[in-house]
């Protein structure tokens, strides 16, 4: 199974210069809860935007067209097809975590979508690709806690592909 996991603002913005344009510790905790012990897949730019270090307790796949690209502690793959073959060997969901091009490339293959909506608008340069929501059924919608560290209203939504 393949899932997409991302946070976005009200306009679908997901990034600014390969990093998140907001600080929301609750969402970082949610991200960790949803990915710990699983395989995560991201593009090279997203990986480099995260400091070029794999996240602990997760197998990390970096997807890039650059055939000579290497990074310590990760598996480098060069095509969507290569990742899809890998997912067939997995018992847990493989999570696609960005960026915009990678999210778009895997759109036909998602079984689940995990979306955090931050109820604000921000400046940035990367958006989640358009989703045909008629193909998805919402199975969870939980409001996040707003406090002194998490100043933006937000919600966690989970969708499963309609059969």
Please describe what this structure looks like.
- Helix content is 19%, strand content 33%.
- The chain has 163 residues and is α/β, with parallel strands linked by helices.
- Strands 5-4-3-6-1-7-10-9 form an eight-stranded mixed β-sheet, sandwiched between helices. The protein has a two-stranded antiparallel ribbon with strand order 2-8.
Summary keywords:
4 helices, 8-stranded mixed beta sheet, two-stranded antiparallel sheet, alpha/beta, Dihydrofolate Reductase, subunit A
Q: In brief, what are we looking at here?
A:
The protein has 163 residues and is α/β, with parallel strands linked by helices. The protein has helices spanning 25-35, 44-49, 80-87, 100-105, and strands spanning 2-8, 13-15, 39-43, 59-63, 75-77, 94-98, 112-118, 126-127, 136-143, 154-161.
What is the topology, as strand order, of the major beta sheet? 5-4-3-6-1-7-10-9
Runs in which pLDDT lies below 50 for 5 or more consecutive residues are: none
- List the helices and strands in order: EEHEHEEHEHEEEE
The biggest beta sheet is recorded as: 8 strands, mixed
* Percent of residues in helices: 10-25%
Strand content: 25-35%
Any idea of the CATH topology? Dihydrofolate Reductase, subunit A
What do we call the CATH homologous superfamily?
Dihydrofolate Reductase, subunit A
CATH architecture: 3-Layer(aba) Sandwich
Tell the overall outline.
globular
Mean pLDDT equals: 96
Distance between the termini: 14 Å
Just give the CATH class.
Alpha Beta
Question: By helix and strand content, what is the structural category?
Answer: alpha/beta
